[in-house]
Amino acid sequence: MAHINPIIPETLEKLHLHTAQTDPQIILFSGCFTFTGGKDRRSGLILTIPLCTEQTSMEELSSTLDYLLGIPSDKCKARGFTVIVDGRKSQWNIVKTVVLMLQNVIPAEVSLVCVVKPDEFWDKKVTHFCFWKEKDRLGFEVILVSANKLTRYIEPCQLTDEFGGSLVYDHIDWVNKRLVFEKFTKESSSLLDELVVINDSEKSSHELLSELQQRRFNGAEGGGVAWSPMDDELLAQPQVMKLLDSLREQYTKYQEVCRQRSKRSQLEDIQTKVMQVVNWLEGPGTEQLRTQWGIGDSIRASQALQQKHEEIESQHSEWFAVYVELNQQIAALLSAGDEEDLVELKGLQQQLSDVCYRQASQLESRQNVLQSAHEFHGTAQDLSQQLDGLLGMLCADVAPADGAAIQQTLKHLEEKLKSVEGALVGLREKGQVLMDQMSNQTSWSYGKDVPIDNKDNVDHIQGVMEDMQLRKQRCEDMVDVRRLKMLQMVQLFKCEEDASQAVEWLGELLDALLKTHIRLGDDSQETKVLLEKHKKFVDVAQSTYDYGRQLLQATVVLCQSLRCSTRSSGDTLPRLNRVWKQFTVTTEERVHRLEMACSFHTAAEKGDLPVEVEQETYEEVETVGKALLDRLTVPIFTLPVACPSEFVFTLILA
């Protein structure tokens, strides 16, 4: 609200001067009683009584006090008074007399009396009177206090400088304004009395004029003796009528003056209130907004700023309510249609609307900035938590049981990284919206645009986004490393699995070789075919063995790359070598037997030879057959091997 001059008391109502032997206003000029405008902690007025050695009589003081007590309203009196009796330049007996006078004049209105004692206190023998013991009899509390300790009971801003306070008060100015008020009150009362007399006189004039006219009428038309008016009576009628016309004219002018004064008073009151609203909004209101341009560095900080902004909005809402009321009053005056006031009223209405709408726009803009800042910090916090979770996963040791577990873990990492990327995009969007809103902000202070320095806020937003980008980039790099490691582990598991499969395949080939590859052929041609098939069979086994060896070598390389010392090929390589050795021995034996069988069949198939040659051939066949039989009876390994001895003997006999 507009600043009220503190030298004027709170209320100046219902005052009528008390008659006394000495005019109270003359005593007031001396400053023996003052209403400085200060208030105690109960919102009661403070009455100051500065005493001196040359003191006015108690009767004059009592009369002046009666005059002062007629100034405040009954509501103000109900809150009670705090009286400061300044006895630093007076004697104890005068102080005591003044306190007792307060008891006699206004005991009910006084709440507290503070007697300011001098630095060198009065003689204890003189001040044997104890006020605190007399509280019940006095009706109020009296305390003795030094000037520098008076602030214990009254706020410094409510005390004048003579008591160490900051309240500004000009006693002469206050008295002069009181005199103007008294003069206006006296003249207004006198004018009202005169209007009453004029109103009564107008009634008497009407009666006189009516009587004169009636007498004239009766004399002209009556049946009696004709009445002849005197000259003065003839002259009285137009004089009375002229005076009545003058009275009506003056009364009409007076009514117009009163109407103009009332309208002017109403207009001035509206203008004063408009300026109060405008000055507060352009002054303290704008200053509140001007000092609140931060966005905080976290959700908690932005929430605190939002709460502070709500308090500012609450204060503004009170002034906006005054604006609505004033706007309605101005609209009512504009509808009255007084041409001479239209321009001024429209100017006031436009000025008030411009300032209020401008301030409301700044409040809304600030609220939007704070809401965007809260969303930005919320997104930044969520993103930070996601990055922390992702980093925790990346820093944890990986010990999957199999390739499927690795694939599941890798999928989970990819989903986390995708979520982080989406959150970072959202953070950039919210940060850009926030910076755009701040760039469009301007402050309005005392009718001028004041640029707002948002460099710190912009730097903070960009710093948060850059920090999140760096953290996300580090996590991406770690995800790439983890992805490569997991793919290598998948490959490791696959190599180990395929190497075991190669051992199984080689074992199956060995088992088939021992159990099913036993035929030696019925003739040399069939034996040669079996020998050729056996070579192909050996080639397949060789490829399987080589594939297993390569897989196991890849496993060793992957373990070294992964620094996985706890994993190795285990017993796969010994198993592979053992099975391959068994297969090699078996296949060599199979080759020898097929070759011997081929030699046997070749020798046996020779016919129509000379007797000498046939005998030699028979001996050769018998020798080869026996050697083959002996070979077939020897087991290759502990596995049972079928021995086609009957077949050999059949061939020999043939």
UniProtKB/TrEMBL annotation:
Question: GO molecular-function annotation terms?
Answer: phosphatidylinositol-3,4-bisphosphate binding; phosphatidylinositol-3,5-bisphosphate binding; phosphatidylinositol-3-phosphate binding; phosphatidylinositol-4,5-bisphosphate binding; phosphatidylinositol-4-phosphate binding; phosphatidylinositol-5-phosphate binding
Gene3D superfamilies membership? 1.20.58.60
Give the keywords, sorted: Repeat
Q: Where does the SESTD1-like spectrin repeats region domain lie?
A: 371-480
Is Metal-binding set as a keyword in this record? no
Keyword Metal-binding assigned to the entry: answer is no
- The membrane spanning regions, by residue number, are none
Q: Which residues form the CRAL-TRIO domain?
A: 47-171
Q: In which family does this protein belong, per the annotation? A: Belongs to the SOLO family.
Q: What is this protein called?
A: CRAL-TRIO domain-containing protein
